[in-house]
Amino acid sequence: MQKDNKLIVGITQGDSNGIGYEVIIKALSDERILDQFTPIVYGSPKLFGFYLKTIPEIESLPLNNIENAKDAQPKKINILNCLPDSTYAEPGFQGPEAANSAIKALDAAVRDIKAGSIDVLVTGPINKKSVSIQGFQFPGHTEYLMNQFGVKDVTMLMVSDRIKLGVVTGHIPLKDVPGAITEEKILSKLRLMKESLIKDFGYDNPTIGVLSLNPHSGDGGLLGTEEQDIIIPALKRATEEGIQAFGPFSPDGYFGLGKYQQFDATLAMYHDQGLSPFKTIAFSDGVNYTAGLPVVRTSPDHGTAYDMAGRDMADPVSMRSAIFTAIDIYRRRQAYEKLIEGKMIDRTPVEEERPQRPDRPQIA
Asked: Around Cβ 85, how many Cβ atoms within 10 Å?
């Protein structure tokens, strides 16, 4: 859905006691940004007004309170009220009211993107423990959206201009990681990453560096056999499918020597193995993108930051990056689909360049 040729960007408030509202308000505070898209903030005008008062440098904003996405107006910050009038905020406090508000805002935005009322979805940060206590049965946004759209697999793809990084396993305890890594799961993530890099980011024949699980890539089995038993066989199968995946690389040297810059993207085996270096490299403007969904969803790469909430300390750069990354991906997808449609209509065989395939993955 578009009005005046502007995309409709749905933004969920996230945890109402965290920094979600602050980064949203700051990200949208420059009125020139409203010339580029129409935002709909899913949450509460009451909470929006409360947090606006905590940011002295922003005196007023062009607000439009609505009950339905179809009533959104261009050049306005549209606030879709999906919370009860009794809702309240307690900045910095992890509690049930804030968790329930986050869930209600997310549910409302997902209903609207399914209905085509918004074009892309940007989610504010939630507290995973808080929402789980309130009955949210998923480890995070990624798993929730995977369930909502009925897809078999997705991957959390961390994105910046300097590095793109996916993970094989996401929000699970570290002790469960080795048992969760399989050939099929690695191959699935590589397929998703290749497809996303092509249609969402414009790469022709992307290359992906794959990390090892064990120190020094297992040292030939001395420090673990997952590389020999699982990762290398998965890379061989990927190569046979035309996926340019290389590795496994020992993470310390891979990041320490800047080897990640030689690849279009990186696949890590588990959450902190990938996100720790990613946030070291690109924390301020990093974006979390869910690759593999039929819709575009992004979020800032930070959490609720309760210790900063309500104190006018939060940096909006990652939220702003999440908004514009979602818009860029949406437009690239449209261009890609038109290109594919044009090829199908033309029915002219397209001679594609054969990918360069190594004889076998190399161990770093």
From this structure: 8
pTM for the full predicted model: 0.90
Which tokens is 67 given?
């009950």
pLDDT in tens, 237-287: 999 999 999 999 999 999 999 999 999 999 999 999 999 999 999 988 999
- On the question of pLDDT at 294 being above 90, the answer is yes
The per-residue DSSP string of 135-175 comes to T--SSSHHHHHHHHTT-S--EEEEE-SS-EEEESS-SS-GG
Angle (deg, nearest 10), helices 20-27 and 317-346: 70
What is the torsion angle, in degrees rounded to the nearest 10, for the CA atoms of residue 173, residue 179, residue 180 and residue 181? Answer: 120
Residue 171 is predicted with a pLDDT of: 86
Residues 165 and 201: beta-carbon distance below 8 Å: no
166-170, 217-221, 253-257, 327-331: segment of lowest average pLDDT: 217-221
Confidence category of residue 346, pLDDT binned at 50, 70, 90: low
pLDDT reported for residue 218: 84
Radius of gyration of the chain (CA): 21
Amino acid at 214: N
Alpha-carbon gap, residue 278 to 71, rounded angstroms: 39
Which residues pair with residue 298 across a beta bridge?
122, 289
**φ, ψ for residue 8 (rounded to 5)?**
-95, 115
- Write the DSSP symbol of residue 181: -
Query: Under DSSP, is residue 252 helix (H, G, I), strand (E, B) or coil?
Result: helix
Q: Which residues pair with 66 in a beta bridge?
A: 80
Instruction: Provide CB contacts within 8 A for 182, sequence distance 6+.
Output: 230
Query: Facing residues of 3 across strands?
Result: 6
Of 86, 81, 128, the closest CA to residue 105 belongs to 81
Contact 251, 268 (CB under 8 A): yes
Structure tokens at 166: 């996916």
